[in-house]
Amino acid sequence: MNISSVRLLLQGYQMAGVDVQHPLLGETTCGSLLLQLQKIWDEVGESDVERDKMLLQLEQECLNVYKRKVEQAAKSRAHLLQALADAKLELSTLLASLGEKSFIGIPVKTSGSIKEQLAAIAPALEHLLKQKEERVKKFANVLTQIQKIRGEISGTNEQTGSFTVDESDLSVKKLDEFHDHLQELEKEKSERLNKVLEFVNIIHDICAVLGIDFYATVTEVHPSLNDTTDTQSKSISNDTLARLAKTVLSLKEAKKQRLQKLQDLAAELNKLWNLMDTSEEERSLFDHVTCKISSSVDEVNVPGALALDLIEQAEVEVERLDELKGSRMKEIALKKQGELEEIFARAHIEIDTQSAREKILGLIDSGHVEPSDLVADMDAQIIKAKEEALSRKDILDKVEKWMSACEEESWLEDYNRDDNRYSGSRGAHLNLKRAEKARILVSKIPGLVDTLVAKTRTWEEEHGFTFAYDGVPLLAMLDEYAVLRHDREEEKRRMRDQKKFHEQLNTEQEAMFGSKPSPARPLSSTKKVVGPGSRGLNRRLSLNQNGGGGKSVNRDVKRDVPRPVAPLNYVAISKEDPGLFTP
Question: Residue ranges under compositional bias (Basic and acidic residues) (predicted)?
Fold first, then answer.
């Protein structure tokens, strides 16, 4: 717009009759203002030059205003286009980040003004932003748990929240991968926790058996293992598991060593008790020790069973018994010797008890023999003596039967000489029954003697020495019995012949003189008894006319037959063999 055009514009306004006096009553326009300005100039008397100058200035200012408005509009359009491009880019980025190929709310075709396009994209963009925010929270939650479990496993105790979520990939697939990894970590955590609890339970049981403070032990491994503390979760780190395993091995070794020590003490207690013949009542005080003498490590589970005070108590008892052993050693050894002598006495083996006891006391006083070895050796001799007594039992039983039969034979002889045996006196019928049994028993004596001889000879061949009965060779006793029995039979025959002669003589006198003479007295009224007790053969075989008592021994028989050899023991030790117990 130039000056001439402005002038033409003013003229047109004047011809149109535009009211310039009251411009505020109507709409204020550029034309009304120009008319008002023309009127002012007319009143003032401005020259055309000034007027043109002022109009040119006014024209320039209007142009500048239009230029600014156009520039502002262009900038606004550029901003909107950039916003639209940014929105589309963000939309595609969100779709890619969330792993979505498309979204229902996004317009397929972009048409219309820029603002319309922005308005069409905005809802979808807002929805995807919310979805992204929720997805980021899920990722953060999963990653927080993963980081926490990793920290528990590694033992670093990392602070949660010190990580950033990678927003370039927020897809469901990636989230599922993190969830799978979290499940693996949770499974590993559960397994580690079970392993920790298993170790803790083992430690608890062993500590109970050993009498050790359980809480102090596990706290030394890791404070979180102590249930009395305020720790929320137990440590499952590699270091904690390694230290728990090491602690378990250490406690098991300690349990094994204590059990071995207790078993050694129990064996020593039994040895000392047996040595000193301790009463069962006193032994029962340490049943809790001796009951584990053959137990394995896994079988000992009673709380306090391997406590140090219990082991120390057993040690004190062993020391006490060991000190007491020296003072009671003579009493114990003599008691064992008495048992040995009793076995020999029951087996009818003659020994020198006095020499044996002196030998034992001399060995103890000399200190050349360990008391436990001495008693153990005497126990061995007792066992050997019992074995020999057992080997003699069959023969001794038959000897007793033989002696009993000889006693009955002696009684039967007395009974047969009694002229009033058939009278009606009190008890006569009992004697009659006994006489019948005695005759049966006496009839078996020859077979019994033959059996005894055979068995005795067999025994002597097996053992290599003479079978003696209270120091007298049994075969010599049987031989002498056979001789005496033969003499007795001869005497009986002579008695019968003599009786027959007297009877015949009486018959002839009665025929010659007509009267019966008085019965003649036997030539000898002396009774000759046949049995193992005759001639004083053995002080234990007393079968004289009154049935007992004889103490004499035929030493001539004992001189002709070798003495029986007793088993090697302290009783039969020769005084000329001091080196037998060389320490």
Answer: 553-562
Strongest mean pLDDT among 114-123, 243-252, 525-534: 243-252
167 neighbors 133 (Cβ within 8 angstroms): no
- Say how far residue 106 (Cα) sits from the centre of its chain: 74
pLDDT at 235 over 80: yes
Give pLDDT tens digits for 138-195. 989 999 999 888 888 887 765 555 668 777 778 888 889 999 999 999 999 999 999 9
Q: How far is CA 386 from the centre of its chain?
A: 40
SS3 of 475-513: the string is: HHHHHHHHHHHHHHHHHHHHHHHHHHHHHHHHHHHHHHH
Position 362 pLDDT exceeds 70:
yes
Please give the helix or strand (H or E) that residue 70 lies within, else none: helix 48-98
Per-residue tokens: 344: 């020999």
Question: Which class for 242: exposed (0-12), middle (13-18), buried (19 or more C-beta within 10 A)?
Answer: exposed
Is pTM beyond 0.90? Reply is no
CA-wise closest residue to 97 among 186, 183, 179, 169: 169
Q: Do the beta carbons of residue 378 and residue 569 sit within 8 Å?
A: yes
Measuring CA to CA, which residue among 374, 364, 372, 367 is closest to residue 268?
372
Instruction: Answer whether residue 129 shows pLDDT above 90.
Output: no
The answer to whether residues 445 and 402 touch, using CB atoms and an 8 Å cutoff, is yes
pLDDT mean over 327-335: 78
Condensed to tens digits (0 to 9), the pLDDT of residues 67-86 reads 999 999 999 989 988 888 88
Let me know how long the chain is.
583
DSSP 140: H
- What is d(CA 428, CA 438) in angstroms, rounded to the nearest whole number? 15
Using left for φ > 0, alpha for ψ between -120 and 50, and beta otherwise, residue 173 falls in alpha
CA distances from residue 309 to 214, 304, 319, 507, 573 in whole angstroms, order as listed: 17, 9, 15, 106, 47
Contact 117, 110 (CB under 8 A): yes
Closest by CA to 474, choosing from 500, 453, 503, is 453
pLDDT at residue number 383: 92
Residue 522 has pLDDT above 90, yes or no: no
Tokens of 136: 């980021």
Backbone angles phi, psi at 472, to 5 degrees: -105, 130
Q: Which of 63, 60, 51 is nearest to 7 (CA)?
A: 51
CA dist., res. 15 & res. 356, Å (int): 176
